[in-house]
Write a structure and sequence with these properties.
The protein has ten helices and no strands. The protein has helices spanning 4-7, 11-21, 32-40, 43-73, 77-105, 116-139, 142-179, 183-213, 218-239, 249-266. 80% of the residues lie in helices and 0% in strands. The chain has one domain: Ribonucleotide Reductase, subunit A. It has 270 residues and is an all-alpha fold. The chain binds fe (ii) ion (2 copies). The site of one fe (ii) ion has 5 residues, from helix 8.
């Protein structure tokens, strides 16, 4: 009789899937219709879409830059196999938005769009967790490294991918579909969302095992999850103010809180 563990995708299964499903090419996607759509928007709507895409772009660049630490520090060779595909996919997500700014939204300082709360969770805080793994590796301290790997996975796969990215991509994908605009961005979000699904499955599997093997990790991981829900409320409000697209902030927060609870359940925190 199959057990739950048989149904769970192993890192090697996910690596095999990535070789087929993660091979879409941002450079080959058409942006012509998106460019024409953008030109028809009011400047207020252009500004709101730009703000959302700046968060996507800066987030993707940040995760692409820091994930190499985790791959290098990861002791399990099968997880490293999957992580090599994961790094490649994050770089492609950043490449897509780099192209989107160049060809559709216009080139600008996208980092200037970040408020301190999102900058802290998406960039500075994540970088510190990467550096903590680097320090533990240099010191040869296995215990410290194991804990640093766990906290990095909780921040990266738990909060940034598992809650923030999924909420934003699901919500924005749903909104663009309903207004029938930006078909290129809709398609990219669908493809990115599928890649993120594999990243999250792998990350939650790793975290569940780490917490089961080290019950002392449960309290700090839970604290990380609960701390980040506060900043999530702040950066979400920022995207909706002003709100010329008339986006439904309650719907987005509802998606976010549900995913937050789901991730905590996935790894055995609740
Ligand atoms: Fe990504
Ligand atoms: Fe990802």
């Amino acid at each position: 009789m199959p057990t739950l563990s048989h149904a769970v995708k192993t890192p090697r299964d996910l690596y095999q899937m990535a070789k087929h499903l993660g091979m879409w090419d941002p450079a080959a996607m058409s942006l012509a219709e998106d460019k024409a759509n953008f030109a028809t928007l009011s400047s207020e709507k252009q500004e709101q879409l730009t703000k959302i895409c700046a968060l996507f772009y800066e987030g993707e660049v940040s995760v692409a830059d820091t994930l190499a630490w985790f791959m290098l520090a990861m002791p399990d060779p099968e997880r490293r196999m999957f992580l090599s595909a994961h790094v490649f996919e994050e770089v492609k997500h950043a490449e897509y938005f780099e192209r989107y700014f160049k060809e559709v939204l216009g080139e600008m300082d996208t980092a200037a769009y970040l408020i301190p709360e999102s900058r802290n969770v998406l960039m500075d805080g994540l970088k510190e967790r990467g550096e903590a793994m680097g320090r533990a590796m240099m010191n040869g301290n296995q215990q410290e490294l194991d804990f640093a790997l766990t906290m990095f996975a909780a921040h990266y796969m738990g909060i940034i991918e598992g809650v923030m990215a999924l909420t934003a991509y699901d919500y924005v994908g749903e909104m663009l579909t309903s207004v029938k605009l930006f078909p290129g961005l809709q398609e990219a979000i669908r493809l990115i969302r599928a890649d993120e699904g594999r990243h999250i499955i792998h990350g939650m599997d790793y975290l569940r095992k780490q917490i089961a093997d080290h019950p002392e990790y449960k309290a700090p991981v839970k604290e990380l999850f609960l701390d980040n829900i506060k900043s999530m409320t702040l950066w979400t409000q920022w995207v909706f103010n002003p709100n010329p697209f008339g986006l439904d902030s309650e719907r987005m927060m509802f998606l976010g809180y549900n995913l937050h609870r789901q991730r905590m359940r996935d790894i055995g925190l609740i």
